[in-house]
């Protein structure tokens, strides 16, 4: 039985861990070929093999292709890296159908936890905006260029771009001015690019996860931490996500990314899909 993304060619940035890893695995499970991209193929804070190796062991390639997934090292904030990433995808698989701009960074380690803006180092702003904001902009730029240059997908659409935002792209939170600004930027980029390429039948959407159990969140909110502040933060976040009494899982977000790249989202563009257990309903 064909998957929902059967034979589509996808790039997933930040694919080594967390949400990106789950998206890449879910895409392969739905029949896509995947270019996994990150700074390092090894999972961060997770156990297991690199994402592309896990995909190839579980989902063999077909149609004479050498592999279901490959890894391409790239810094998503560097223009030449992103341009080369798209070129390598086309070299390996012949085209690019789906671009998932997932690579991102939190200000953890760049500024004091909970710091107000007057205590926030300017370098934190530059680093967070450089990856979370510029990285998404670059991914859209080079993906759109390739999608315009190639023949349309058999569906008639030219491509699907999915940008990873956050609930903090729609609301604020004390101590998160850099991160929140970067994720508001993602939503603004998504809306503008969707309007620019709607006539070309390129879908451009965003996913806004709530707080999700990943290696990115674990240092600051962890029920099993020996740090009482991390335990308290975890309890506070649980109370703010009313659905099912839990934080998000990477698989929750991956399901949304599958939907937005599938024919089920055939008339969806310029939207931000909240996957947050009710966080922004408060």
3D structure, described in words:
By secondary structure, the chain is α/β, with parallel strands linked by helices. The chain has a single domain, classed as Rossmann fold, CATH 3.40.50. The protein has 7 helices and 7 strands. The chain has helices spanning 18-29, 51-58, 79-93, 122-149, 177-197, 228-240, 250-260, and strands at residues 9-13, 33-38, 69-73, 98-101, 159-164, 202-209, 272-275. The chain has a 7-stranded parallel beta sheet, sandwiched between helices. Helix 1 (18-29) runs parallel beside helix 2 (51-58). The longest helix is centred in the middle third of the chain and has 28 residues, at 122-149. It is globular.
Number of helical runs? 7
> What number of domains?
1
**What level of helicity do the residues show?**
25-40%
Sheet with most strands: 7 strands, parallel
Q: Which architecture per CATH?
A: 3-Layer(aba) Sandwich
Rg, alpha carbons? 18 Å
Strand percent estimate:
5-15%
Mean of all residue-level pLDDT scores: 92
Number of strands: 7
Q: What is the strand arrangement across the widest sheet?
A: 3-2-1-4-5-6-7
CATH class: Alpha Beta
Which residues form runs of ≥5 with pLDDT under 50? none
Global structural class? alpha/beta
The N- and C-terminal alpha carbons lie at a distance of: 41 Å
Order of helices and strands: EHEHEHEHEHEHHE
CATH topology: Rossmann fold
InterPro entries: NAD(P)-bd_dom_sf, Sc_DH/Rdtase_CS, SDR_fam
GO molecular function: oxidoreductase activity, acting on the CH-OH group of donors, NAD or NADP as acceptor
Protein name: Short chain dehydrogenase
Organism: Helicocarpus griseus UAMH5409
């Amino acid at each position: 039985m064909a998957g929902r993304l059967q034979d589509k060619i996808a790039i997933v940035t930040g694919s080594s861990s967390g949400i990106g890893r789950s998206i890449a695995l879910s895409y392969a499970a739905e029949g896509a070929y995947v270019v996994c991209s990150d700074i390092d193929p090894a999972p961060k804070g997770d156990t297991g093999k690199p994402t592309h190796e896990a995909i190839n062991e579980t989902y063999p390639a077909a149609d004479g292709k050498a592999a279901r997934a490959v890894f391409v090292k790239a810094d998503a904030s560097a223009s030449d890296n992103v341009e080369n990433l798209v070129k390598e995808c086309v070299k390996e698989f012949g085209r690019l159908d789906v671009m998932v701009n997932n690579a991102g960074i939190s200000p953890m380690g760049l500024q004091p936890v909970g710091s107000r803006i007057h205590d926030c180092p300017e370098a934190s702003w530059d680093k967070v905006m450089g990856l979370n904001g510029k990285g998404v902009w670059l991914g859209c730029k080079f993906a759109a260029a390739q999608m315009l240059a190639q023949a349309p997908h058999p569906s008639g659409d030219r491509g699907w771009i999915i940008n990873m935002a956050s609930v903090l792209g729609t609301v604020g939170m004390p101590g998160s001015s850099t991160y929140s600004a970067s994720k508001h930027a993602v939503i603004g980029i998504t809306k503008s690019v969707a309007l620019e390429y709607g006539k070309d039948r390129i879908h451009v959407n965003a996913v806004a996860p709530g707080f999700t159990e990943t290696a990115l969140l674990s240092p600051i909110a962890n029920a099993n931490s020996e740090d009482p502040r991390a335990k308290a933060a975890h309890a506070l976040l649980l109370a703010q996500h009313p659905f099912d009494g839990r934080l998000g899982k990477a698989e929750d977000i991956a399901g949304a990314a599958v939907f937005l790249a599938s024919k089920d989202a055939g008339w969806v563009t310029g939207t931000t899909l909240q996957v947050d257990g009710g966080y922004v309903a408060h």
